[in-house]
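Session log. Operator J.P. requested a structure for one protein chain; no other inputs attached. Running the standard single-chain path with token output.
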Amino acid sequence: MIVGGGPAGLAAALALRQRGASVTVADAMKPPIDKACGEGLMPDSLRELAQLGVDLSVDDGAGFRGIRFVNHHIGRDGASNTRRNVEMVTAQFPSAQSTPETGIGLRRQLLHGRLIEQAEAAGVVLRWQSPVQLKTNGQVLIAGEPAQYDWLIGADGHGSRVRRWAGLERGSILSRRVGFRQHFCIEPWSPYVEVHWGNTGQAYVTPVGPNEVCVATIARGSHFRFEAMLAELPVLAAKLAGRAATDAVPVDRERGAVTTTRRLERVARGKVILVGDASGSADAITGEGMGMAFRQALLLAECLEAGKPERYNRLHPDILQLPQTMARVMLLMDRSEAFRNRAIHMLASEPALFSRMLGVHLGSESLLRFVASRGLEVAWRLAVQSSSTQAHATAT
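Structure written below.
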């Protein structure tokens, strides 16, 4: 029994059906279910999605070849007048068998629909508009009727009721920010996912169709909205405004959501197991929410088939480790303009370094290998730049 019919719940259902389990998914909502997110799937996420039986192509949305950071920051000229500087750095995805890998951006509702189609074809029982009640005596009701299960999977998101009900809340929230998402009718101007950095937060732009982009903003303050963010990001504002005379218009309203970096002490207890955001998360800036859910689904099915839920409990943190490490670095860049400026300037001066870091993020290069070969150098260069910046500031 899976509580929650979003991508994480459906991915778990598909993985379990592949190993012969009988699966019912229950959700109080009616599909397709939408949620504010960046809507980009990295190459590794696409491979894991294919293992679940869902093959996507660029025809389903739009392809992108890598990541581009655009740093908007305040500088000073010789007369000590402030001016806004912009610095860019781009990394392409690693090549697989001499073929450059590609990510795919697509509307979340389209992805949800494809997962539903595959779940129906696989024989998953889908109970939509069926509220789930969790009783104190351990009983579960679906649409008011008692439900029997061998395992109960909580895939009900950040505010998981299953997590609270099972006594799995213990853990820590390392970060909490607020995101807003909006779509614009406009031909994508870049073959990359662009992450625009400002002093208050980030906006990342994902092509999701031949004439549509998704713009997601993330900020520390819940009242900091899209227009205020654009005021900090002149390059992005110009891209959107430059096409306003043709068809750069919003095609929907802003949709908001909370994004957290959360760790839990345990993700399984008795016959209850958590997947997706219910089981922990990394800040949305990493772009790894879907990928983590797909990897957790595959691991969950493997462990339950072997009758070893504790193995899932033990290996689950490994799936979150790298995304949460990347989240810590990116959130440090978010909080410290000086650190962000140094880091992006360093990457711009050596684009190959950024490409290797993207490879680590995607799992094509091990983190330990990267740290062993470049970690000390990167730390030294950041420290030297920091000292130089501080010395210059003191002198002026």
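Operator note: Residues 243-247, 386-396 have pLDDT under 50 and may be disordered.
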